[in-house]
Design a protein that fits this description.
mainly alpha; Tetracycline Repressor, domain 2; 9 helices; elongated
Length: about 200
Amino acid sequence: MIKAGSKDKILDAAKRLFGEVGYAETTYKKIARDAGVADGLIAHHFGSKENLFMEVEKKILLELLEKLDESIYYASDGLSAVINFCKCMLKFSAEKNNGYITLLRCSPFIPPQTTTNTDAVIQACDGVVRKMRECIKRGMDDGTIRRDDPETMANIIFAMIIGATRSYLLNRENLLSLNCDENFYPEVIRFLEGNLAAGSKG
């Protein structure tokens, strides 16, 4: 078994802490203590907290993109591709230790005045959205998804999925008085499928 190096330990610790306490409260000291490394190694490997944050976000998004690609690959038509995409995002949000909560708690975009290079994270975010648009277009072309503005449709789907994951995860932490039991995500999928399918009124 290969031992994790200090860089990987720092990334894993930062991913957990950004998700648990947010960007502002995640300090070098907390990361170093959680990773079991000296504080100076964080600056050595990443240069700054902003750089570390961007690396964490990129790592999470690239893992999500890989899983989305796999879920779409097995879809027989456009509607199935959209539904598989949504199921994949919901499943990913419920998995422990993959850092999804960091995407919800901390914006993947650092403010514009930062000196940190955000290109990789922005490209990864764009990749997620682009894949959804491609699935929607495929469904409209093959007749499985009702005709509508694909941009608006993609925006609504993302709003629902991200809203659903926020409700589920925050409820799990007792921050909201919502009943998000094991049927919550399946019901979200049923609602989306019923409203997207060709012949539905939307």
